[in-house]
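Action item from last meeting closed. Structure (69 res):
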């Protein structure tokens, strides 16, 4: 596994973890509402979205390097 593939896998993992915590937070919010839930969702969404973008960038770099660009 190359450096770019490794970075892509790590970023994908972070994005998936943020998604899982976001879903869990939304489910818990239905049973125990909190006025601060939107802050948690915003942070998880921002980190998860940024991680997904980083994963896409490094995945493209890995594919380009494999093609010899």
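Sequence:
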């Amino acid at each position: 596994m190359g450096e770019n593939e490794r970075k892509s896998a790590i970023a994908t993992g972070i994005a998936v973890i943020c998604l899982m915590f976001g879903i869990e937070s939304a489910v818990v919010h239905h049973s125990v509402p909190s006025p601060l839930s939107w802050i948690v969702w915003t942070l998880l969404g921002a980190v998860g979205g940024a991680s997904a973008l980083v994963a896409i960038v490094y995945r493209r770099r890995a594919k380009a390097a494999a093609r010899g660009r």
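Note appended to the action item: The mean pLDDT is 94.
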